[in-house]
Amino acid sequence: MSTPSPSLVDTHAHLASSRLKDDLDEVIGRSREANLSRIVSISCDLEDSVTNLQLAERFDMVSPTVGIHPLYVHEIESADWETELRELGQRPGVSAIAEIGLDYFHPPGDGSSEADWRALQKDVFEKQLQIAIDLELPVVIHQRESAEDVTAVLRNFPKARAVLHCFTGTMKQAEQALELGHLLSFTGIITFKNAVEVQEVAAQSPLDRIMVETDCPYLAPVPFRGKRCEPAYVAHTAAQLARLRGMDDAEIADATTKNADRFFAGA
């Protein structure tokens, strides 16, 4: 009789993505077969937030988040969006305000200057951090080529509980986040041969401060690299994390699941 695979949590999946809508039931089914205990479904805007709340009603393993991604801040139409987000954040089962942060990699989505684009992102980021603090919810942070500014903002919100999702930064950047009490989450990128720096961070970060994710439908791990990603593939990322740390798969699964359950405790 084979030993069942250890339970895992995919702490970052975009189940509201159009790339998953045609076979979402099958995707969830494969997640159950892979022994996932939970999928944290991440929002990019208010529409996503509503969709994720609906998905959580359909699938008991889905933990919804609500939030506005930095690349979508220019699409905010309602002058009362903060009230709307706050109301969504109070719905039963909401596990985090996500995905929020700063993105300096992509050009301004509204054709504005880089300075204005960054200022708008920062304003929306800070307002969402305050909402999260008020609602006693953690936050999932996007920081693409913006790590220093994200750290500076987080220093001004010491009550925020954050995870830096899809962490690909330097050891110094990791240490800055860890010193502030935050967590790091790793995607399938750590399975890529050229991802040496982030592999070192994953290997050396405190065991009680790390989690695993897919960021599906993006960043599929080896051996699925280049294909559409889905939550079941988080097992490959976890297995690589175990190898990097010289641990058993079951040990990593147990540790990262406990970390996720503790971080997303409100769900």
What's the gist of this structure?
This protein has 267 residues and is an alpha/beta fold. It contains nine helices and eight strands.
Question: Could you outline the blueprint of secondary structure elements for this entry?
Answer:
Blueprint (H helix, E strand, L loop, with lengths): L7 E6 L10 H10 L2 E6 L4 H13 L3 E5 L14 H9 L6 E8 L10 H22 L3 E6 L2 H9 L6 E3 L6 H9 L3 E4 L9 H9 L5 E3 L21 H12 L3 H15 L4
Parallel strand pairs: 1-2, 2-3, 3-4, 4-5, 5-6, 6-7, 7-8
Which class in CATH terms? Alpha Beta
Q: Summarize the amount of helix as a percent range.
A: 40-55%
Fold-level CATH name: TIM Barrel
Q: Indicate the proportion of strand residues.
A: 15-25%
Radius of gyration equals 17 Å
What is the oligomer described by this structure?
A: single chain
CATH 2nd-level architecture: Alpha-Beta Barrel
Structure characterization notes:
By secondary structure, the protein is an alpha/beta fold. The chain has one domain (9-263): TIM Barrel, CATH 3.20.20. 40% of the residues lie in helices and 15% in strands. The protein contains 9 helices and 8 strands. It has helices spanning 24-33, 46-58, 81-89, 114-135, 147-155, 171-179, 196-204, 234-245, 249-263; strands at 8-13, 36-41, 62-66, 96-103, 139-144, 162-164, 183-186, 210-212. An 8-stranded parallel β-sheet has the order 1-2-3-4-5-6-7-8, sandwiched between helices. Helix 6 links the parallel strand 6 (162-164) and strand 7 (183-186). Helix 3 (81-89) packs parallel to helix 4 (114-135). 49% of the residues are buried.
